[in-house]
Amino acid sequence: MNEKLKNISSSELLDELIRRKEIVKLKGGIYHEWELFPKYILRNVNLPKDYDFFITKDLLRNLQK
Question: How far apart are CA 16 and CA 19, in angstroms?
Fold first, then answer.
């Protein structure tokens, strides 16, 4: 792994990719509180009301066609 990348946080990396216009930050979510009830011994999972997700510029362009 590149030595420079070892000292950078995920949020700093995302900010840099956004600044370079390599990725786009979009808002997403189900806009309602949901809870998943799994089978067996797994614990319940609360889904967030809204969240950020990141998509590459190329993929965004392809989705807009």
Answer: 5
Residue 47 to residue 35: CA distance in whole angstroms? 6
Residue environment code for 20-52, b if the CB has 16+ CB neighbours within 10 A, otherwise e: eeebeeeeeeeeeeeeeeeeeeeeeeeeeeeee
Read off the pLDDT of residues 16-44 as tens digits, 9 standing for 90 and up.
999 999 999 888 776 566 666 767 777 77
Quote the CA–CA distance of 8 and 2 in Å, as a whole number.
11
Of 30, 56, 62, the closest CA to residue 45 belongs to 30
**How much is the CA Rg of the chain, to the nearest whole Å?**
17
